[in-house]
Amino acid sequence: MDLGKLEFKLLAEFVANADTVMTRAMLIERVWGYDFAPTTNIVDVYVRHLRVKLTAAGGEDPILTVRGVGYMLRG
Predict the structure, then answer these.
(1) Which region among 14-23, 34-43, 49-58, 60-69 has the lowest average model confidence (pLDDT)?
(2) Which of 5, 21, 7, 2 is nearest to 49 (CA)?
(3) Are 4 and 50 contacting, i.e. CB atoms less than 8 angstroms apart?
(4) In degrees rounded to 5, what are phi and psi of residue 51?
């Protein structure tokens, strides 16, 4: 599986914080380096790309969506 630079950074952030809910603002700051939450769905788009790649072999989706809050990697 080939991951782009930002996909890898996003996955690394999830792994480093497994079983912890990461808000979109936290991910924007840590992965993209912004100190503000732009009005964009960039986090959602990259999470979707990452999910597709992680489940390509038929495995279970390891990323849990916490509605209204963010995302969490199941440990």
Answers:
(1) 34-43
(2) 7
(3) no
(4) -60, -45
Structure tokens at 58: 């038929």
Q: Which helix (H) or strand (E) holds 73?
A: strand 70-73
Q: Which CATH number fits domain 5-73: 1.20.1090.10, 1.10.10.10, 3.40.50.300, 2.40.10.10?
A: 1.10.10.10
Residue type, position 62, single letter: P
Question: Tens digits of per-residue pLDDT, 8-39?
Answer: 999 999 999 999 999 999 999 999 998 776 67
3-state secondary structure 47-71: HHHHHHHHCCCCCCCCEEEECCCEE
- pLDDT, mean over the chain: 92
